Amino acid sequence: MTGPKLRRVVGALAEASGMRDAVLNELVRVGDAGLLGEVLRLTGDVATLQVFEETSGLALEEPVLRSKQPLSVQLGPGLLGAVIDGIGRPLQALAAAGGDFIAPGVDASTLDPTTRWDFSPVVTVGQQVRAGDVLGTVLEKGLVHRILVPLGKEGTIERVASGAVRTDEPVAWLLDGPTLHLWQRWPVRRTRPARARLASTEPLLTGQRIFDVLFPIAEGGTVAVPGGFGTGKTVIEQSLAKYAQADVVVYVGCGERGNEMAEVLHEFGALVDPRSGRPVLERTVLVVNTSNMPVAARESSVYLGLTIAEYFRDQGYRAAVMADSLSRWAEALREIGSRLQEMPGEEGYPTYLASRAARLHERAGRVQCLGAPERTGSVTLFSAVSPPGGDFSEPVTQACLRVGGAVWALDPALAHQRQFPAVDWNASYSLYAEGAEAWFAERVDRRWGETRSRLLELLQRDGELREIAAVVGPEALEDHDRLLLAAAALVRELVLGQSAFDPNDAYSSPQKSFRLARAAIDFHDAGRAALKGGSSFAELDVGRVRQALAAARDAAAADAEAAFLKLDEALRALGRTP
Ligand SMILES: Nc1ncnc2c1ncn2[C@@H]1O[C@H](COP(=O)(O)OP(=O)(O)OP(=O)(O)O)[C@@H](O)[C@H]1O
Ligand SMILES: [Mg+2]
After folding, report:
1. Superfamily for 75-109+195-433?
2. How far is the CA of 233 from the centre of ligand 1 (A)?
């Protein structure tokens, strides 16, 4: 009897015969080189496989080996700080095995089996345990990594380890049952279950003023960040990875430039997380599938990233996934779909694009975790979308806009004016804004909601007035309109404008964000009072306020208080004519 054999290879797809008992999504080893692949379609005894590695070396009649397992990822201590490819292999191990080019078929486990971890059990002999229960903990780079009973396992603890344990060694033995390890496996395409889904009301702070104040994201929410070429998507995703208030960040570089990932590695390693005092890289898992890597793995990399985030969610943490970009994920779907000769939908994308995008977004959320002790965790998803030509009506952008709880739409005109983040406040929105307002009002300032509404109002009126001014000239405007334009300019340029490269302003605390926003509103109010009192717009010392606001924004933390005092003085002086 002969085993499965290759009978056709087209790009990232291959066909094998003798696959009668195979199942969809089963992982296979393709050809003599043992390339990793997955069953996409079954017709009789012929399976269509998508191959995650370069297929050019494959020849017909080479064997195909079935694994009887779906594509899955190892989850356990050792993930933090790891850099892995779209199917979970650590790049370092791949480089060691194959030099600068990844050797085909290299089998490298995500986690190093030989690393020892200091395991502290929390369960005792005789205790009943069930899926999701915390067995014990290891300390991984400042994070208490909770070791969970894998899904589908339960029983009575017969023996439990304590102290140094290798990643591949058991930590607990169940009576007449299986042994449990520090690591577990999970199929990447399947959502990890939770006890219950919870509403998302608390904001996940981003440290970016325009998001936290105008378009906040809730913990467990989803945001689409559509933007044409060079509008700042990657800079936003990287700023979020650095500063967003998540315990664990999974950064998925999906089909984008390789040098950007090198940048992430370099910068994140140098940057210290102010909350933990440890390098940001240590709370980050990097999934790298750059544009020069095979297209099928680009499709899987997003699911891999979500699975890792869910695993940390299940431990009771706030995980965030930054995907850059979902357009490349969708293009991979399109390429594979067209090779399968499926009926194409809009612009050649498969007809199931929207439902796949929806299912992917559904993996975000805040949950009550399975198992004891009780805990909640979340996965928040930030996805960049790169519409060709910046045209938001194209299918991928539309599919993501439909399912995103918030949209941060980037505008090339703003990027061109170097107004960064180049977020178009007219086209952006957040369904989480109302819930977040209550949270900010309680913790930062009770005027938070009012300040936010006033900013939005100012920006809207500003747009109208600037259109009028373009026709009649700014001199023709009345004083109170010119004041409004001046206030809105402060909002746009100094409050919402935030340089990702300014060491003092790359991160803005909610307190700082509020004070700057409020100062612009106070400027408008003080100016109006002065006009009412008989001053003319020309007499107002706008320049002084502007300077003081810029200084407060850019001050180092130690000088911030003094700078804000000066800003208050400038605001008070506004109405006083010399
Ligand atoms: N917040 C920011 N502060 C300062 N500069 C920024 C900011 N955001 C973007 N930029 C500038 O815009 C440039 C382009 O940004 P970025 O690479 O993030 O765009 P992109 O949308 O990812 O582009 P692409 O479509 O090519 O992937 C950056 O190199 C930087 O100079
Ligand atoms: Mg980019």
Report:
1. P-loop containing nucleotide triphosphate hydrolases (3.40.50.300)
2. 6
